[in-house]
Each structure stands twice: as structure tokens, then as C-alpha cells.
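Ticket #4471: structure output looks truncated?

Reporter: J.K.
Steps to reproduce: submitted the chain below (377 residues) through the standard prediction queue, then opened the result file.
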Amino acid sequence: MISTLNIKSPSKKGAFLFITIIFNILSWSQEIDVVTTLDNQISETSGLIQLDNRLITHNDSGGEASLFEIDIATGKINRTIEISNATNIDWEDITHDDKYIYIGDFGNNNGTRTDLTIYIIDIQKYLAATNSVDIEGTITFNYRDQEDFTPNPFATNFDAEAMISQGDFIYVFTKNWVDLQTNVYRIPKTTGSYEVERLQSFPALGLITGATLDPNSLDVILTGYTNTESFLFKLSNINFSDFSTNTFNKNTLSIPENNSLQIEGITTIDGSPNLYITAEAFQETISSLYEINSQTLSNDLNAKKTDNVSFSPNPAIDFIKIDQNTPSKTTIKNLKGQIIIESTEKNIDIEGLDKGTYFIQISTEEKQYSVQKLLKL
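Returned output as attached by the reporter:
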């Protein structure tokens, strides 16, 4: 089931894509608490961990190659440590084990990167550092199933923003702009260069942006968003040798005024069932820290469907027909989330659209939604 979480203060964040199956998104409700807004210096907060009673984050996309420790009460920065000999091309997530911190520089919105990297930092050296700490090594990798590196902005399945540490491996979760799944890749923790094979794929129903591993239950909880919502996606009863599971569910964050957060970082809290979550700044919204009790997340795995609202043909050349008797509104967007067509007609002319993939959202007065991909020939 998709549950609904009510955030106690409004935020606004745009996003790009849509869910691809149909859900009753108001199935039930629970709250997620705003802890504090964050310092402007970490407005692009991306990854998040708690280590030695310190809440640690970093910025993404060309920010400083530094880790920032957050004062949980005020959102201010208590401590900044530069990571020497490292470059922040697109830092997207952070994780750790008993000995090392791992920073994932593998953001890849264009699908062109051949320098995907995970930096390794010794925990004890980090804790003892005054201003900076040297890296212990680097892990570089590429995806075995990626053969085409032609620039394809926001239309690649080889972007990634999430990872966890478990045993001798790092598990990376992709942010699939095309099919809205997440692919799982396993990478050895030792310094070296690797070609990694996809282990599993899951229907994330949106864009995955962060991950954490519950050390007690070994559940993996992913953060993500669509153009209309932010969500938590939980994977349980995992076989880590091949990352297979039949147990997963999605919990939607319902934002006041129908605004969406782009939540980025997530971590468990030592000795607590709660989770911390960060969202980056966007327009007038300030980056913020949130808290939620993980034990209240839905464990019902069966999404409750609404009546389907569909269209045909697909693929299409010059028009589509909305197969719906009740009045409805159709919105067609491109892969960047830009509205191309809005119509209340049953027959919609698409002859003027460029060839490619689009996303269609069909809504009725009952607020039932059908979101599907359209291939224009």
C-alpha cells in the first residue's frame, strides 16, 4: 500500500517525472516532523549519515569537497572537514562501516561519465582531524550494461544518487529517468577499478535520491520523488548475495498545498527507530532536516488501485484518444517535466510533438490519476 505522510510545514520543490502505475494515494496518513532548517552553506545537502553522535552531510554538483557536521537543534554547522585529494564532481551519497566513510561521486544526469568514484576515508582520522583529512583510497567503477555514453540529459538509466554499506560491499541504487525503476549494483569496498554487474531492478515508481540500511532489521529505506510527491521506499527480507526480495512498499509524503520536496539524504539514528531526512533548497524553500519513526511506515505490500484511465494508440503518430467516459484533464510533459500539452478533449492532436518519450497524466474530478509513458513516432 502507498501510505501518506503529512509534513508539518509547507515546502516547494519541482521534479521531473511521474509514477507509472495507478494508486489510491490517500490510503492512510501519518506525520513526519520538521526538526530545523539548515545552514545556507549546505543548501545542496545530498547524503546523510550519523556517526559518533554526529550528523554529517555534504553538498552535491560541484560543491566543496568537504563534510559538514550539523547541529541538530539549530541546523547550523558545528564542524567542516575538507577531504584532501578529492574533487566534488557530483557527490550524491555517503555511507560508512566500522572503519571507513564512503563518499559516492557518481551523479550522472547526462549518462556520459566514465569516472564514477567512491572515496574512502578512515573514520578515526576523520574524527581526529582539525581542518582536513586525506583519503585512504578510491574505488572507480563503470556499469557493465552501459554501452552508450551519448549525452542524454535527464533521460538515462545510469544516473545514481544512493548507496549503502553491507558486509564487504557497497550497494549502489540508480536513479532511472527513463523507466522509473532502480537498479542495484554491488561494488567491492577495496581500492580498485571495477566493472559492475546489475544484481536486481525494482519498480521504484519515481527517482531514487538516497539510501540507508537499518542495522537491526537490515531493511533498506530509499528516498525519492516524482513531479507530484516525495516518498520513502522500503526493501525488506533481502538476500544480499543477489539482492533479491519480494517485500517492498512505498510511503508517500503528502505536502501541504500539493507542493513537493526533493528529499536527498537519509540515515538511521543510533539507538532509535527514527530516521533523519534532509531536503535541499529550491526557490523560496530552505534546506531542512526532518525526522520520522521508521516503525510507523506501512508494511502492506499491496497497492490499492483506482479505476484505470487510459489512452490509445501507444506508440502514436498524430493523435491519441482518451478512453474515459467521465470528464478528465490530460497533461503531457517532456522528460524535464515541462508541460507540452494540456487538454480536456478526448481526441488530442500530438502531430506537432517531436519524436521521443513523453509522460501523460490523466485526472478526473474524483482525483484519480493515471500516469503512463507515451512514445511519439
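Triage note (M.O.): checked the attachment and the full C-alpha cell line is present. The mean pLDDT is 83.
Status: closed, working as intended.
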